[in-house]
């Protein structure tokens, strides 16, 4: 596809629309730049996918959701990016995703509860294998109305991420959102021991 056509189609995908503030916050935490390969888990309405596509020109985004309705909404909202080959949307559970090792530079999820309501062993194993060395994982949620509950959610997510070989997990707590940001070991070296208790960032 000619570059000018690709760029025109992509522009259709990122037209201004209502985006929840927690979604904007989550995308702002990601190390996005042109050429990045990004995996989104639980794409919902497609709001995050559109923002990510706008920041990864020349890259590719794979958005997943178990819900057929969510997949349809994401495609409709980001039709230009889909047609341009920038965005692929699949109806599949993360635990069942099969991709080559090191397929992505960045992976993220917004408001996907399985990461704290379950051990998420299969899901985190898939993410660990799918991310390239030095890759980034963000599991994000809204700011949370109850600080005690929010702290418990983030503690569980951090523990799960730690247990699956992700490194330097950082708990983020800000006015617009919260989450756990971690990486994969650079150069494929073994993961180091768990990091010190996370700092609280505002």
Termini separation? 44 Å
Rg, nearest Å: 16 Å
What portion of residues is helical?
25-40%
Quote the average pLDDT.
87
**What characterizes the major β-sheet?**
7 strands, mixed
Query: Element order, helices and strands?
Result: HHEHEHHEEHHEHEE
Task: Describe the protein's architecture and organization.
- 37% of the residues lie in helices and 23% in strands.
- A seven-stranded mixed sheet has the order 3-2-1-4-5-7-6, sandwiched between helices.
- Helix 2 packs parallel to helix 3.
- The longest helix is centred in the last third of the chain and has 17 residues.
- The N and C termini lie far apart (44 Å).
- The N terminus and C terminus are likely disordered.
Characteristics:
8 helices, seven-stranded mixed sheet, alpha/beta, disordered C terminus, 202 residues
Helix and strand topology:
Elements: H1 3-13, H2 21-28, E1 37-41, H3 47-55, E2 60-65, H4 68-77, H5 79-83, E3 87-91, E4 104-110, H6 114-117, H7 121-130, E5 131-141, H8 147-163, E6 167-173, E7 178-183
Parallel strand pairs: 1-2, 1-4, 2-3, 4-5
Antiparallel strand pairs: 5-7, 6-7
Short description:
The chain is of the alpha/beta class. 37% of the residues lie in helices and 23% in strands. Strands 3-2-1-4-5-7-6 form a 7-stranded mixed sheet, with helices on both faces.
């Amino acid at each position: 596809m000619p570059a000018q056509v690709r760029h025109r189609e992509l522009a259709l995908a990122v037209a201004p629309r209502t985006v929840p503030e927690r979604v904007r916050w989550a995308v702002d935490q990601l190390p996005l730049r042109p050429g990045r390969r990004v995996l989104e888990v639980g794409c919902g309405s497609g709001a995050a996918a559109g923002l990510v596509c706008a920041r990864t020109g020349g890259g590719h985004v794979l958005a997943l959701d178990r819900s057929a309705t969510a997949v349809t909404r994401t495609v409709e909202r980001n039709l230009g990016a889909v047609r341009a080959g920038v965005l692929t949307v699949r109806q599949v559970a993360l635990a069942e995703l099969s991709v080559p090792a090191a397929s992505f530079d960045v992976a993220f999820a917004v408001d996907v509860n399985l990461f704290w309501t379950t051990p998420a062993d299969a899901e985190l194993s898939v993410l660990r294998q799918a991310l390239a060395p030095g890759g980034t994982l963000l599991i994000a949620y809204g700011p949370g109305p109850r600080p005690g509950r929010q702290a418990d959610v983030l503690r569980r997510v951090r523990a799960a991420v730690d247990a699956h070989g992700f490194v330097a997990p950082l708990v983020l707590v800000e006015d617009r959102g919260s989450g756990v940001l971690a990486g994969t070991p650079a150069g494929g070296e073994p993961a180091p021991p768990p990091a010190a208790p996370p700092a609280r960032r505002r």
